[in-house]
TrEMBL record:
InterPro entries: Cyt_c-like_dom_sf, Cyt_c_Planctomycete-type, LRR_dom_sf
UniProt domain Cytochrome C Planctomycete-type: residue ranges: 205-264
Record keyword Membrane present: yes
Residues passing through the membrane, by range: 28-48, 60-85, 97-114, 126-145
Keywords: Membrane, Transmembrane, Transmembrane helix
Pfam annotation, one family: PSCyt1
Protein name stated in the entry: Ribonuclease inhibitor
Nucleotide-binding found in the keyword field: no
Lineage: Bacteria, Pseudomonadati, Bacteroidota, Cytophagia, Cytophagales
Entries under Gene3D superfamilies matching the protein: Ribonuclease Inhibitor
Length: 514
C-alpha cells in the first residue's frame, strides 16, 4: 500500500511541462501494463480451479503471484501517468482509466495482504476479504483495459465490428457505415476532397484524429473539423502549403518527434504529400472538381495515375483529356460472366463493376481490397474474356500474379502502381495484345522492362514515375515507339527542394503537435 501512496504523491508532483526523461519512461507503459494483466488472470484462474475442482494450490504460489501483480500494477500506474503528460487523450476517458488502474493496484495489494501468511493472520476477517478483493481487481482490470483501448484506438475500437445481434444486446446504436472509397473513373470530374484528399486522410491520419480519439485536439474525419484545426490553431493555410502544419509535419525526418504519421505507422507516400500540397495551394476547397482547379506539370502525372487512362494534357484549369478514338476492344461483345465467379471475386473484397452491359465487359478494382494477393489473383482467369479494366494498385500482388493477369486477353487498362511488380512480372504480359494503358508508378521496374513494353504494339500510355528506369531508358523507348505517351512523373528534385524550404520553419516551432 505504501508503494501506491508514494506513486500518487509522485503523480501529483509531476511538472506541467514534462521533461524528456518523464516521457521516455512513460512510453514503457504499454509494456509494463501487460504484467499485472497476466499475473492477476493467472491468480484468478488458479483460485477458480481450486474452488471448483478442489485441487490443492500452494498458498505461497498464489501469494507470490499476487505480490508481483500488485507491484507491476503500481508501476503501470506510474508509467501510465507519465505517458499521459504527453497529451492528446480524451480527458474524461483518461481520468476514468487512471482511477481504474489505481483501483486495480489497490485491490491487488489488499488481496496479497490478506492472502499472505504473515499479514493475513493480523488482519481481522482476512479470509472474508480475499476473494472480493481479488474479484474487484479483476473487474477493474477489464474495465481499465477497455478504456485503455479506447484511448489508444478510439472509443468504438472494441465493438466497432460487433454484429448487429451483439450490438442490440449491448444497447449500442446500429453500426455506422465504414468509409468507402469512391472509384475514380474520370479524374477530370473527380471531387478533389471527397475522392482524392479524404481517402489519404482516412488511411493515414484518421486513426488518431477522429471523434473518439483526437490527438492534440485535432480531428481530420470531417471537413468541419479539418477547418477547425487543432489546439494551437489551423492545420492548414489555404493557398500556402509551405505555411501549413499538415504538410510541415509530413516533411520532417521520420525519426523526428513531430513527424506525422508517427514512426512505425503507415507513412504518406511522396505522391500523397504532393496531392495534399496541391490541394492546399489551390485553396483547400471541399466542393470542387479537379477540372475546377489549376493543374501544373508537376502534379499532372500524379492525378492521372489515380484513374482514367487516356493520354492527357494540361490545359487551362484542370486536365483536358480530349476526345480519344474508341478502342476496338471496347466495342467487342463477350459472353456474360458467370454470376458465381463474380460473387467469388467480390468475396475477396474486389469491386466488380459493369463497364459495358451491352458487351458484358467488366471493370475489376481493388480500391477497397488493399490486401489482395497473388493467391487470390488465381481467380481472375475465370473472367478472362470479360475483364477489360483491372485496377490492382497498392495491393500485395507480386510478379507471381502476372501469370494470371496475362490470361486476361481482352485487358485494355492495367493499374499496378505501388505494387511489388518487377521486370520479371512485366515479361509475362507480352501476350496482352489489347493492352493500351499501363500504370507502373512506384514499382521496381528498370530499363529492362521498357524493352518488353516496346513490344506491346497497342500500348498508348505508360506511367513510370518513381520507378528504377533511367532517362536514357525512357528516351530509348520513345525512340522506338514515338506515339507512346511515356509519363516519367513529378520531379523528385522539386519535392526535395520544397521539403528544404518547409522543414526549417517547423524545426523552430515549439508548438505542440499530435
Amino acid at each position: 500500500m505504501a508503494l501506491v501512496l508514494n506513486a500518487l504523491i509522485l503523480l501529483q508532483a509531476a511538472p506541467a511541462q514534462p521533461s524528456d526523461w518523464l516521457l521516455f519512461f512513460g512510453h514503457f507503459h504499454p509494456l509494463i501494463v501487460h504484467l499485472p494483466i497476466g499475473f492477476l488472470l493467472i491468480a484468478g484462474l488458479l483460485e477458480i480451479d481450486r474452488l471448483t475442482r478442489r485441487n490443492s494450490v500452494s498458498p505461497h504460489t498464489i501469494t507470490l503471484i499476487l505480490f508481483w501483480s500488485a507491484v507491476s500494477a503500481t508501476l503501470a500506474c506510474v508509467f501510465g501517468y507519465l505517458l499521459s503528460l504527453g497529451g492528446g487523450y480524451e480527458t474524461e476517458t483518461l481520468a476514468e482509466h487512471q482511477w481504474q488502474g489505481i483501483g486495480v493496484a489497490v485491490f491487488a495489494w489488499i488481496a496479497w495482504a490478506v492472502k499472505s501468511e504473515n499479514l493475513g493472520r493480523r488482519i481481522p476477517f482476512a479470509q472474508l476479504m480475499y476473494l472480493p478483493a481479488l474479484g474487484i481487481s479483476l473487474m477493474l482490470l477489464l474495465i481499465a483495459g477497455h478504456h485503455g483501448a479506447n484511448l489508444t484506438h478510439g472509443e468504438d475500437y472494441l465493438m466497432q465490428y460487433a454484429p448487429a445481434p451483439l450490438r442490440t444486446l449491448a444497447g449500442l446504436p446500429p453500426r455506422q457505415p465504414t468509409f468507402k472509397f469512391e472509384p475514380i473513373t474520370d479524374v477530370n470530374q473527380a471531387m478533389v476532397y471527397q475522392q482524392i484528399v479524404n481517402p489519404i486522410l482516412q488511411t493515414r491520419c484518421v486513426q488518431c484524429h477522429n471523434a473518439g480519439k483526437s490527438k492534440a485536439g485535432l480531428r481530420l474525419d470531417t471537413p468541419e473539423m479539418i477547418r477547425k484545426g487543432y489546439e494551437d490553431g489551423p492545420v492548414f493555410v489555404a493557398g500556402k502549403s509551405s505555411k501549413s502544419e499538415l504538410i510541415k509535419v509530413c516533411l520532417l525526418p521520420e525519426d523526428d518527434d513531430h513527424h506525422m504519421p508517427p514512426k512505425g505507422k503507415n507513412q504518406l507516400t511522396d505522391s500523397q504529400i504532393a496531392l495534399l500540397t496541391w490541394w492546399i495551394d489551390q485553396g483547400a476547397t471541399f466542393d470542387k472538381k479537379v477540372s475546377d482547379l489549376k493543374v501544373n506539370e508537376a502534379i499532372r502525372p500524379v492525378l492521372a495515375s489515380l484513374g482514367g487512362g487516356q493520354p492527357i494534357q494540361t490545359g487551362g484549369a484542370g486536365i483536358a483529356t480530349g476526345p480519344a478514338p474508341e478502342s476496338p476492344v471496347l466495342t467487342m461483345k463477350v459472353p456474360a460472366a458467370d454470376p458465381k465467379t463474380v460473387d467469388e471475386l467480390k468475396r475477396t473484397g474486389l469491386l466488380v463493376l459493369p463497364l459495358s452491359r451491352e458487351q458484358n465487359q467488366l471493370e475489376v478494382s481493388a480500391v477497397n481490397a488493399r490486401t489482395f494477393n497473388d493467391t487470390q489473383a488465381a481467380l481472375l482467369p475465370k473472367l478472362s474474356q470479360q475483364v477489360v479494366w483491372l485496377k490492382l494498385g497498392e495491393t500485395d500482388v507480386t510478379d507471381a500474379a502476372m501469370a494470371y493477369i496475362a490470361k486476361l486477353k481482352n485487358l485494355q487498362k492495367l493499374h499496378l502502381e505501388q505494387t511489388r511488380v518487377t521486370d520479371s512480372g512485366i515479361r509475362q504480359l507480352k501476350g496482352l495484345d489489347n493492352l493500351e494503358y499501363l500504370n507502373l508508378y512506384g514499382t521496381g521496374v528498370t530499363d529492362a522492362a521498357l524493352v518488353e513494353l516496346a513490344g506491346l504494339k497497342r500500348l498508348k500510355t505508360v506511367y513510370l514515375w518513381q520507378t528504377k528506369v533511367t532517362e536514357q531508358g525512357i528516351a530509348s523507348l520513345k525512340k522506338s515507339r514515338p506515339q507512346l505517351d511515356v509519363v516519367g512523373g513529378i520531379s523528385e528534385q522539386a519535392l526535395a527542394e520544397f521539403a528544404k524550404t518547409a522543414a526549417p520553419e517547423t524545426k523552430g516551432d515549439e508548438s505542440k503537435r499530435n
